[in-house]
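ARCHIVE CARD
Drawer: 12
Card no.: 0347
Subject: one protein chain, sequence and derived structure
Cross-reference: see card 0346
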Amino acid sequence: MNSDRTLVQIRERTFLDILDLAMVVVRERPVTLGIAAVVGVAPFAALNAWLVSSAGIKVSGLIPLLLMEVPWATAPLTMALGGMMFGERPSADRMLRTFLRSIPSMLLHHVVVRGFLVLIPLLYFLIPARLAFLDEVILLERIGIWSALRRGAVLCLHRGGELFGQWLAQLFFGAAFVACFWLGTEALARALTQSELTWEQPGASDLLDLRFHGAVWLAIAFFGVVRFLTYIDQRIRLEGWEVKLRLRAVGQLLEDAQRW
């Protein structure tokens, strides 16, 4: 591991530090991350738009659907971040091959297992508490299909409650962003198109417009970056990356001193 080529500095961080770091990463790599996010999100955004317009699905029906779509929609973003983390330039061809190889494991864990937990709300807390990094395990570590659940649980070891609390915080921050984006763009549109400003209360039907869905997917993409950085932070904690790099740096200094 070369610390000079990593996307972020190798050290332990708090959750608030990770949120701040996610903003920095997005600001530094907007094009690559934006393309990866659009590639993952666009098919599911189109599917949801069709379901809303043609099938008449309600807001309550979108919630479990979004819970099932999130790991698939953020998969390209996860692979792009995984490549950039260690100074590699993620290529579309390599990412596609990785995704195709991961489909059997993704189907088992993100359709069968996740679907079962989503259908039983009392069990859904197991996903953020015990299986928070399943996407990263499947797509980046590429371990066996039957080992992914065990590896995902090991990564969440002793931090299940903390990770669940972080997930609740993400829901709160995400909901606040969606509300601000939705109401703000509505106010801007009225200011540009109407001579008199009015502050009408939005109705339930307004929750299905493009602005609302756009805000939701923006929040999902951003917290996909947060999830990846939390995964890296957890591996730093469990595997001692920071200590190893410091020992390596000390060893290099000793070697340089001996040469003199």
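Annotation on reverse: The chain has eleven helices and no strands. The chain has one domain: 15-237.
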